[in-house]
Amino acid sequence: MKNILLEIENLNIDYFDGETPLAATKDIGFSIFEGETLGIIGESGSGKTSIANAIMRILPANASVSGRISYKNRDILKMDDKEMKKILWNEIAMIFQNSLDVLNPLLTIGEQIAETLREHKSLKRKEAEDITKEYLEKVGLEKDDFKAYPHQLSGGMRQRALIAMGLVCQPKLLIADELTSALDAKTKSEILDLLSNLQKEFNFSLLLISHELDTIASLTERLMVLYRGQLLEEGFTKEILRYQYHPYSRGLINSSTTINVYKDLWGIPARKTLEEGDGCPFYSRCNQKIEICKLERPSLISLEASRKLACHQGGILEVLRGEDISKSFMNKNGQVRACIDCSLYIRQGEFISLVGQSGSGKTTLANILSGVLKKDSGSVLFKKENSEAMKLGSQLGGVQIVFQDPFSSINENFTVLDAVREPLQINKLEDQVEEKVKEYLSRVELENSTGYLARRIHSLSGGQRQRVALARALIMEPELLIADEICSMLDKSTEANILRLLKKLQNEEGFSMIYITHNLNVALKLSDRILVMNEGRIVESGNPVTIMKNPKDKYTKDLIRFNKKNELLLYD
Amino acid sequence: MKRYKWILDIIITILIVVTLNFFIPRLMPGDPFMYLEGEDGHIMSNFSEGDIQRYKEYYNMDKPLLEQYIDYLKKLVKLDLGYSIYYRHEVSYLIKSRLKWTIPLVAISILLSSFLGTVLGLISAWKRGSFFDRLCYFIMIILNEIPSFLIGVLFLFTLGAKYKLFPISGGFTLYGNFVTRKEKILDIIHHGVLPSLTLMLVSIGDYYLYARNSMINILSKDYIKTARAKGLKNRVIIFKHMLRNGIAPILTRIFLSFGNIVGGAVLVENVFAYPGLGKMMQSSIKTRDYPLLQGIFLVTTLTVLVTTIIGDKINQILDPRLKNG
Prior knowledge:
The structure holds 2 protein chains of 2 kinds.
Chain A: E1 4-16, E2 21-33, E3 37-41, H1 48-56, E4 63-71, E5 74-75, H2 81-87, E6 92-95, H3 109-121, H4 125-138, H5 155-167, E7 173-177, H6 185-202, E8 205-210, H7 213-219, E9 222-227, E10 230-236, H8 237-242, H9 247-254, H10 291-295, E11 301-304, E12 307-309, E13 318-331, E14 334-347, E15 351-355, H11 362-370, E16 377-382, E17 385-386, E18 399-402, H12 406-409, H13 416-426, H14 434-443, H15 450-453, H16 462-474, E19 480-484, H17 492-509, E20 512-517, H18 520-526, E21 529-534, E22 537-542, H19 544-549, H20 554-571
Parallel strand pairs in A: 3-8, 3-9, 6-7, 7-8, 15-20, 15-21, 18-19, 19-20
Antiparallel strand pairs in A: 1-2, 1-4, 4-5, 9-10, 10-12, 11-12, 13-14, 13-16, 16-17, 21-22
Helix pairs in contact in A: 3-4, 3-5, 4-5, 5-6, 13-16, 14-16
Chain B: H1 5-27, E1 35-37, E2 42-44, H2 49-58, H3 65-77, H4 91-126, H5 131-145, H6 148-162, H7 181-219, H8 222-229, H9 234-259, H10 266-271, H11 277-286, H12 290-318
Antiparallel strand pairs in B: 1-2
């Protein structure tokens, strides 16, 4: 077991601007071990830099700090200035966020590096200069850059100089704030390699503050997710990037183009309620909040070894789970096995696609999951309970399914009003439904005038009918919406509009979706996860990048190959 | 070629200044022999018509203005500043004899006020919000707002007249018997204390406020945060990282105020009847002594020009960003 180098407990930082304090961090606690690399991610304003500044004791005068920051078992916050100055840079150094202003414009780069050696290592001018030049070369600059002024260096060179400055006293802990945020891709990759090699060479501990996932991924072993001054999730970097427990972590990571190469970008929707309380910091933006989230702040507790989470719900909820589902049909040729041992799960707010050719069993599986069709064997759990007894389709907050063919799925002689309110009426759920129908029509971007409500379904176009079908499903406020090839009978432009609408609604309302399609490209654009089905089996599952980069099943490989071939036809 | 452009600029500036110096005094009503007396606007003269005519011929003032101007330029090229009509002495001699009084007075007060003002401003900024800062700020604001002659008169009445600590007028004791050279120098210093103290107090507030402001601005810069994070000693942070960045505009300001060496001292020299150039300028305006006025104005503008250039060069040396290439 390695030794703890820096341990932070109950760190609270407040900024006083006028009377009311503004909290930058709330009860932060974490440790860094010797030689360990730890990352902090979070949106701007989450308090990342405040933590770094608190460790270096360079917070502005209007900030108040409480808690404990112990370095080698001594509390930094209680040291006098003289003691602190001995530790600063000599043991804890920092690479500041790159800007022209972080270096003194009137002093040469070399002087600004060498002065720390003279201060902390009691070196003579000449010795300090020699060591500085050695470090300049180490970070890929030249000896002559010693005499350069900050304004004479490019952004990348300045970043290298800042790294040399941070390392020259051989600190035990290096804090790097937004190491790569202003750099182009090539320089960025070089800087990341450089720091990674230097870290291996000197074995210092690294606290890396960044909002860039690729930087975090390439430099850190462990990761913490910070939101509005509170830690929401903590664990090994690789694991968090692969699978997130907290809805905020998922939103943050999904907003990155590094992770989402194929999918359209959807940020975390802005806060829905303005209610703020002493509860969870993510309360106002969360789609799975419950009463306690508003009242009480969740504490960071261990889920499993090396993984911690702060969420009253225990992280993103599982909405539906199917296990070993099998289904056979009889036809004139005998038994057809439509689904064979299909297992899958879907989490709250997740968008998954079921991809496969016609006859692969997608629709059968969808119908079983939604409760429309009975399975032969296996089980379907809705929110961890057996769904057999529940009528998922006829309750609010259940599962709804929208079918492929808008022309036959709704009675053509219904008015729009009748079609949309039918599920509520059949299930005797609500009386005053007309207002609700109008609201949902406007959500699916249809007219909601009285005239439109009275129109008959047969007078609507395919796209409009599919929107009516969506409104009819959404009015039941489903937790899970299954869409079965809903665009296959529509023209391409209408398809694009409907899909964008659907994705927007899903992102805002936070319901989960299973989208069934034979079009891999559409699935890539929409999904968090893709399941590939072939001959009744789920043969592959994973996020779009792993599926595309590293397909395992032969059928998936074929699918990708045909896809590529079709693309090339167009551009040859 | 471009490197020497600034020399051409200076020559053109001097030419414009010299021209203005020549014409402006002559645009005032009256002339050296007939000048405004008192506040009621009467034109007075101590000479008869015939005398005036003769004098004008003697001083070439009967010729057309343009011809006089060209004559003046010709003499100027030979560094001849002309002859004072009122004092009946060479202008260059007169100016030199007065400058030796004004320069030490102004120089000492500028050096003291800029040094003290800057140091106090620096400490104030570093300890911003402390008792020291608030007290200093309060005093300096008040000093800055009081007109110079008022401070002078105050000193004159209290330290001079009431407590008789310092002489109340002049640059040295008239008809004094000095046995040794040392005694004479002490006498001169004794006379110089109140005027230079006044001048110092007048301008110290300006330096203080300027330095404090400039340092507060620098304190908020990221590189000061870097310097603190590097665990450098406070001394190093203040003098190496803060002062060096804030000093350039302050130095420029000091040099610019050296340019005001003559003008700046006029009021104080008058209050203390100090035999400096400012006092002479005031009396030569009164007597419309054209050659002397031209000479004083020329010296004044030349000092402003020279000190501005020096200030500029110093700025360039201190700030590597202003160097070309």
